[in-house]
């Protein structure tokens, strides 16, 4: 195992005194680290000190709008003021509880759906350094929670809620300035589709337009709807837009079957025998166009599960084929039989070396049913169309994260790291051989840690305080 730090972000505190939050995504962010040094492992965790978290701890009440939670106004005038601050973005949370990325310049940034929720941390001490301030004047309130980050660039999408569309932007290492590559105008719906993540190929950026669209009315409501800040618009249809990374021009926009996804896995260009690009292939964790997955993640639903019935909605590796021959339609089909991974599919990772390229393996959380939440780790072989699954009774694994072995030449030569939450409240760090998917080691935590979301790997030469 190479030396470095695995960081995992996620919600870690779901209450303020005796007030309990509603949804998994509401919790205040907690960063966990696994620091590997010469065969030894040191673990630690710390709350990310966002303004939302600090205000809640000081005032002992909710002070900012979270995923499903809204501060309770004291009177009508304060309600009007709260609405005004919503439109300005002042009342939106900066609770960066979704992901964490290591930039090419060594800075480590925690992220969520709001732009103001970009917060820098020290990867060794986990101390909150402060806000990551964007120095450009692009504005907007939200962005994709999962940018594409490499040693040479940072790519993300900025949804435009006023004139429905998306700005595609790039930021270079060492800079805080995002520069516009191009813009995509929405082809359907009253608002942009939710873009929690998006994929890229070597030459293209794929912008998904999902019929699960942002909804201003739902944002204004004091009590959440089953779709929270979104609304399902099947009549608006679904589209994928392909943009040239270099010129910012739209290469094609195709209508695709309705879909629901949080996480894209990867994408690549398909070429003919003469080397010409004839299609783009994009894979995602697709929920069979079923929006109920959002409400299944209410804390009450998760905590009240008895284990006797199957309530986790089905999911698959959804594979989009986007033709580049001028056809107006693309395809969506399962990349392999969903029963291979128990019809559960989310929280995915790949070997970063194959980002945007044709690839064979993906690592994700699958299901052994009956269940109400993904409860296995699965290695997907897209060439053989099979899955290798890890499961332990009473265990809930978090995102499996692939770390390559130094000097590796094979795509699956490395380890997969996951943090496991157990039914009895305990937990441990798990290392699997990415090739065989056999356990290499586990390290029990001295106390239980909450379920987390997404992580990143910070090599040793990047993690000096």
Automatic annotation (TrEMBL):
Keyword Phosphoprotein annotated: no
Cofactor note: Binds 1 Fe(2+) ion per subunit.
Entry's Gene Ontology cellular component terms: chloroplast
Binding-site residues, Fe cation: 146, 196, 263, 454
Cofactor needs: Fe(2+)
InterPro entries, sorted: Carotenoid_Oase
Coiled-coil features, chain-numbered ranges: none
GO biological process: carotene catabolic process
Entry keyword set: Dioxygenase, Iron, Metal-binding, Oxidoreductase
Alphabetized GO MF terms: carotenoid dioxygenase activity; metal ion binding
Protein family per UniProt: Belongs to the carotenoid oxygenase family.
Name assigned to this protein: Carotenoid cleavage dioxygenase 8 homolog B, chloroplastic
Source organism (scientific name): Punica granatum
Lineage, broadest ranks: Eukaryota, Viridiplantae, Streptophyta, Embryophyta, Tracheophyta
């Amino acid at each position: 195992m190479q030396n470095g730090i695995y960081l995992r972000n996620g919600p870690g505190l779901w209450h303020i005194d005796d007030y309990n939050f509603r949804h998994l995504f509401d919790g205040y962010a907690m960063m966990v680290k696994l620091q590997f040094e010469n065969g030894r492992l040191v673990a630690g965790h710390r709350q990310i000190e966002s303004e939302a978290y600090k205000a809640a701890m000081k005032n002992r009440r909710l002070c900012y709008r979270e995923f499903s939670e809204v501060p309770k106004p004291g009177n009508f005038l304060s309600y009007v003021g709260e609405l005004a601050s919503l439109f300005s973005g002042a009342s939106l949370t900066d609770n960066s509880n979704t992901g964490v990325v290591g930039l090419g310049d060594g800075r480590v940034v925690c992220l969520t759906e709001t732009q103001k929720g970009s917060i820098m941390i020290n990867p060794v001490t986990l101390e909150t350094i402060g806000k990551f301030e964007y120095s450009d004047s692009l504005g907007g309130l939200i962005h994709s929670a999962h940018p594409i980050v490499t040693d040479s660039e940072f790519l993300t999408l900025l949804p435009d809620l006023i004139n429905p569309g998306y700005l595609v932007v790039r930021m270079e290492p060492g800079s805080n300035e995002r520069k516009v590559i191009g813009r995509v105008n929405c082809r359907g719906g009253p608002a942009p589709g939710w873009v929690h993540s998006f994929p890229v190929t070597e030459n293209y950026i794929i912008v998904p337009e999902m019929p699960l669209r942002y909804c201003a009315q739902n944002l204004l409501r004091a009590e959440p709807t089953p779709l929270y800040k979104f609304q399902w618009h099947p009549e608006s249809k679904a589209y994928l837009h392909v943009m040239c990374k270099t010129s910012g021009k739209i290469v094609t926009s195709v209508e695709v079957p309705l879909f629901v996804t949080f996480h894209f896995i990867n994408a690549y260009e398909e070429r003919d025998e003469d080397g010409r690009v004839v299609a783009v292939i994009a894979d995602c964790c697709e929920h069979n166009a079923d929006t109920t997955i959002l409400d299944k993640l209410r804390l009450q639903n998760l905590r009240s599960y008895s284990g006797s019935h199957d309530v986790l909605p089905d999911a698959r590796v959804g594979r989009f084929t986007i033709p580049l021959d001028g056809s107006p339609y693309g395809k969506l089909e399962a990349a392999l039989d969903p029963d291979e991974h128990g019809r559960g599919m989310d929280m995915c990772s790949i070997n970063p070396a194959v980002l945007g390229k044709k690839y064979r393996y993906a690592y994700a959380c699958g299901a052994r049913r009956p269940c109400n939440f993904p409860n296995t780790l699965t290695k997907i072989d897209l060439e053989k169309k099979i899955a290798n699954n890890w499961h332990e009774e009473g265990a809930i694994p978090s995102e499996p994260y692939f770390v390559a072995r130094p000097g590796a030449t094979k795509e699956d030569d490395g380890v997969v790291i996951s943090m496991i939450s157990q039914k009895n409240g305990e937990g441990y760090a798990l290392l699997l051989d990415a090739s065989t998917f056999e356990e290499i080691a586990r390290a029990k935590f001295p106390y239980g840690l909450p379920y987390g979301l997404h992580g990143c790997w910070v090599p040793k030469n990047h993690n000096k305080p």
